[in-house]
Amino acid sequence: MADVKISALTAASALTGTELIETVQSGTSKKTTTQAIANLYSLGYTAEDSSNKSTDGTFAANSDELYPSQKAAKTYIDGKIPKVYAVRLTQTGTSDPTASTGYNSTGATVTIIRTGTGYARITFSGGVMTSGKTIVSLSGTGSGGYTDPKLFTHQISAVNQINLGAFRASDQTAEDDWVLDITVTIYP
Fold first, then answer.
1. CA distance 142 to 178
2. Which residues contact 16 (CB under 8 A, 6 or more apart)?
3. Contact yes or no for 111/97 (Cβ under 8 A)
4. What is the pLDDT of residue 42?
5. CA 96 to CA 115: how far, in whole Å?
6. Which of 127, 116, 125 is nearest to 175 (CA)?
7. Which of 134, 172, 129 lies closest to 150, judged by CA?
8. pLDDT of the residue at 104
9. Cα 167 to Cα 176: distance, rounded to the nearest angstrom
10. Consecutive sets of 10 residues in the chain, 188 residues long: mean pLDDT of each?
């Protein structure tokens, strides 16, 4: 074919739409007509233009033409989901409280210490809490269950610390031996 002059080539004829073209879709060979391919264009199908791909996880352009990469979409969504630290704390005698049955999506390591009779401190390894965007929920009992009622309080003392207090319900005296469910929700 390399030695044929262009003037000697047969002229192309118009397509009828019935010509079969072999395509590969998801690793499988399939035959389709030229008309079926033409119909994709008439439906408004346009292949993605990689120059329109955006990696901006803030979606700052607010564009109808840009499409986000998978990473940009994940970054955006992750920024809208609250971080949560939720555990059951059990404190007995003069021991530090222990955490069980927990969930931590803050990304921080958490330490919990007893700071005095009826008092404890939760410390996050990083400044995870934001003023005005952090909610702390407490629900607890004395170690004797509902026959040993306790009142609980908390104070966010820094971006990485929560102070806890446990008090006997009858006279509000600080007291050890308690079980506390705590949920810290940090909104973006």
1. 4
2. 34
3. no
4. 66
5. 8
6. 116
7. 172
8. 96
9. 8
10. 71 80 81 81 67 84 84 87 96 95 92 97 94 94 74 95 93 93 95
**CB under 8 A, 24+ apart: contacts of 153-161:** 154/182, 156/129, 157/121, 158/127, 159/127, 159/128, 159/129, 159/130, 159/131, 160/108, 160/123, 160/124, 160/125, 160/126, 160/127, 160/128, 160/129, 161/121, 161/122, 161/123, 161/124
The reply to whether the predicted model has a pTM over 0.85 is no
Distance CA 117, CA 152 (A): 13
Structure tokens of 82?
């609250």
CB atoms within 10 A of CB 107: 10
As beta bridge partners, residue 183 has: 86, 137
